[in-house]
Amino acid sequence: MIRLERLKNRMLQMAKIGGTENNGVTRLALSQEDKKGRDLFVKWMQELKLDVRIDDFGNIYGRKEGTDPRATAVMVGSHLDSVPKGGRFDGVLGVLAGLEVIESLIENNVEHENPIEIVSFTNEEGARFTPQMLGSGAVTNQFSKEYTYSRKDKNNFIFCDELEKIGYLGKEENRLKNVGAFIEFHIEQGPILEMNNKTIGIVEGISGFSWLEVTVIGETNHSGSTPMELRKDALSTTAITIQAIQKWAEEKEDGTVATIGTVRAEPGIINAVPGKVVFTLDVRNGNKEQFNFYMTEIQELIKDCVQRESLNCTIQEIKAHSPVSFASWITNIIEEVSVESKVPYQRITSGAGHDAMYLNTVTDTAMIFVPSIGGKSHCVEEYTPCDDIEKGINILYKTICRILTSEKYKNQISSIKL
After folding, report:
1. Among 349, 216, 205, 234, which Cα is nearest to 281's?
2. Which of 82, 190, 267, 402 is deepest in the core (most CB within 10 A)?
3. 350: closest CA among 11, 23, 90?
4. What Gene3D superfamilies has UniProt attached to this entry (predicted)?
5. Does residue 199 contact residue 370 with C-beta atoms inside 8 Å?
6. Parallel, antiparallel or unpaired: strands 324-325 and 272-273
């Protein structure tokens, strides 16, 4: 089994890199803090005599060979970068859980034919370079190399230059290949497991999302000279529309969520009726059958609300991604292991995006969640109890062992589709 104290020690060492007040972490992608975290991770893998390599997007891999180096690999991992003043568990727990699993395989002399690899993906958070999940997206051909390399941060530093600056611009030949299964271990970043007294979240998929920018057009006029009944107030119409969006999401009762992230009124002065408002909307839903219908329905709702107030609007889709379904044969193994281990679990859909979302386009994929106390994440209050972590990583370890050693699952592992 895994050794919790060893994992805790590594977690603490990693948390010191970019550590902030109140146990927070700021380790932005391709920063000097990220470099130090990467260097430490590489050092730990080298101590285990893993074959370490870095690809042309800065993704880091560590490989433990099986008896057949040509066999398809089983992969675990996540990311090391953080958001500004984030927590010490998001991403890094998945990477170090993978390291602990591999070290436990070595210590327990587990023989396996298929290689096992651990990976840390570059710029998962998107806090410095947008969009998020650049490393996993690029290596699975969701983003072109040219697009990825040309991304700039707010200070106009270029992704490729910064990757080279920290010494992690690797080779294209080192990209992931011949991978038959990928499992990402992660904190839930939500309250559901804690609310339901469950230790393990067996993630069946990731909600689809649609990001919209809505522009409501009215008429700007003097606040004192324009009677209420003659106004075409874009902001008051937006408020009515937002209330309708909120009610629409609440009535779905299927996990649908809708978030107004930003609102900008123009001209934005105290003594003028707002003639224009731009707001953003993030809509998420995990049902593949309902997703497209819901995304059309919410746009029609917005148009109806605005038109009833005799105003006009435009809706631009910034980005969208359909719901992701993970491999049932892997989630079923996780459930079997949880039952046998007498660890309380539930099947769950992730509302947040993860590297597993892009890995799912090229190989069989699954995720394991452990609880986030208070549902807190991307903040210094982020916390997962050690007992939950230990049970969760033991479930991961047993799942990996079952995939690697059971004849039943060898035929399930198919090579990566790149």
Report:
1. 216
2. 82
3. 90
4. 3.30.70.360, Zn peptidases (3.40.630.10)
5. yes
6. unpaired
The answer to whether residues 367 and 71 touch, using CB atoms and an 8 Å cutoff, is no
Sort strands 200-206 and 345-350 into parallel, antiparallel or unpaired: parallel
Dump strand ranges (E) for 292-410: 312-321, 324-325, 345-350, 364-370
| Per-residue confidence (pLDDT) for residue 409, from 0 to 100 | 81
pLDDT at 365 (0 to 100): 97
Q: How far apart are CA 84 and CA 209, in angstroms?
A: 24
Q: How remote is the C-alpha of 311 from its chain's centroid?
A: 38
Contact 98, 76 (CB under 8 A): yes
State how beta strands 179-187 and 73-79 pair.
Answer: parallel
User: Contact 304/313 with Cβ under 8 angstroms?
Assistant: no
Both tokens of 128, joined, read: 């410095």
Give the Cα separation of 31 and 205 in Å (integer): 31
Q: Which of 417, 371, 12 is nearest to 195 (CA)?
A: 371
Q: H or E segment at 13?
A: helix 4-16
| Residue whose tokens read 């029609």 | 300
Q: Quick one: tokens of 168? A: 């992690």
d(CA 27, CA 84): 7
Task: Please compute Rg for the chain using Cα positions.
Answer: 23
Closest CA to 42 of 59, 26, 29: 59
- Distances, alpha carbon 45 to alpha carbons 40, 92, 395, in Å: 9, 14, 22
Strand ranges, E, within 122-251: 179-187, 200-206, 208-217, 221-222
Residues of the chain with pLDDT under 70: 418
DSSP state of 137: H
pLDDT the model gives residue 89 = 98
Residue with tokens 């020690």: 9
Run of H or E residues at 100 = helix 92-107
Question: Are the CB atoms for 289 and 242 separated by under 8 Å?
Answer: no
Q: E strands within 267-344?
A: 272-273, 276-285, 312-321, 324-325
DSSP state of 380: T
